[in-house]
Amino acid sequence: MRPIIQLLHFGYHQSMSCIFPVAIFGTLALSNVIAVPFLHRYDAILLILLGVQYFMYRSGLETIDEIKVICVFHFIGLMLEIYKVGMGSWSYPEPGYTKLFGVPLYSGFMYASVASFMCQVWRRLRMDMTGWPGLKSSALLGGAIYFNFFTHHFIPDFRWWLTALVFIIFRKTQIIYRVRTITYRMPLALAFIIVGFFIWLAENIATFFDAWKYPDQHQTWHLVSFSKISSWFLLVIISVILVAQLKKVKANRTRSDSF
């Protein structure tokens, strides 16, 4: 009976951590079948998601620090989207007033939703890490992964070399998380793979509801390539590195203030 109770508590906290991602996909689904009067679909999605963020903050579901992290990820994601759309990797074919260089501003929230989940689950499961490689190596790896998303259009794609580096650099890193009174551990690289897989599933849902389209999906929708899991795997690493470092900075600042 105890394992079932633990699983239920774990599932509850995971579900609560997914409120913003669920809100995004729910909005995409509903806006695909229900038109908002006097608004383009992309503009309506942006307004709804801004409203969700305001509600989550006012209700206490998100803290001001978590809002700051989400804003950082929104900017990072939006810059990547503008570049990728400009390179023809995918497109947003519908009209909208809140589009920048062909990219709707709401698209940054899809990246920010990953940060929202990370922050929420970190707090709810009282997460920590052991064997963290440190700021220098993790920051250099995160930067190399992010820039590879841009540079592989002009020079060879180093994603598989970077993936190998992930397993080397984080080979000793484990996530510590707590469910009720019991503490669990998981290799960080395994967590990257699991989260990357679920984001790939979410990507299939998003493209099905026309959040964006890949070039080969304009005629008819079909499953996104399994190779995209590796891209999301690497994106999750950037997310974890940023969130983990911000958590460490905040923890150090809190300890300093207590002296």
UniProtKB/TrEMBL annotation:
Annotated transmembrane regions: 12-34, 40-57, 69-91, 103-122, 189-209, 229-246
Keywords tagged on the record: Membrane, Transmembrane, Transmembrane helix
Pfam families: DUF817
InterPro entries tied to this protein: DUF817
Domain of life: Bacteria
Protein name, entry field: DUF817 domain-containing protein
Organism: Paenibacillus marchantiophytorum
